[in-house]
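Q: what sequence does this backbone want?
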């Protein structure tokens, strides 16, 4: 999540598509009209530094990137299929879209569960005065259990299938 949006970084997308990052970036720049600000944006220096810290990347200046990465929203990733037209790119694109859908479904499920627990807590605590202390502890535990899982330390994602 960057700027309150689910995004994928150019380097990760290039790896999935089996191309160099600069080739992906070049194709995107040649087709800039297909990538408005709500489809793709370039990270600021601060955002890039935060991202590097989050993933424990080495410091810049040792032959790394010269420019801030591009971040693609779900729509931007979909648009990449029109820029990168290989069969492999289409297959990867389909799997990425499915991953975005799964993430969205999981987020909705957590919100629904949290709402239902809150409703149950309100209804129960107003009816039972002496057991409220125990119920508060129970609801607190339920909220902790229903919280989204912590972000994984290792990247998770689609690995392109071996071509036959």
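A:
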């Amino acid at each position: 999540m960057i700027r309150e949006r689910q995004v994928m970084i150019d380097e990760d997308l290039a790896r999935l598509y089996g191309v160099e990052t600069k080739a992906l970036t070049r194709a995107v720049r040649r087709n800039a009209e297909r990538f408005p600000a709500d489809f793709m944006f370039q990270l600021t220096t601060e955002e890039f530094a935060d991202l590097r810290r989050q993933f424990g990347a080495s410091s810049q200046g040792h032959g790394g990137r010269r420019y801030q990465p591009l971040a693609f929203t779900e729509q931007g990733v979909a648009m990449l299929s029109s820029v990168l037209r290989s069969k492999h790119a289409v297959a990867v694109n389909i799997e990425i879209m499915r991953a975005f859908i799964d993430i969205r479904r999981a987020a909705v499920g957590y919100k629904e569960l949290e709402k239902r627990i809150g409703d149950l807590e309100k209804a129960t605590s107003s009816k039972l005065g002496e057991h409220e202390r125990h119920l508060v502890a129970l609801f607190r535990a339920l909220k902790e259990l229903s919280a989204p899982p912590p972000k994984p330390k290792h990247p998770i994602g689609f690995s392109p299938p071996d071509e036959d």
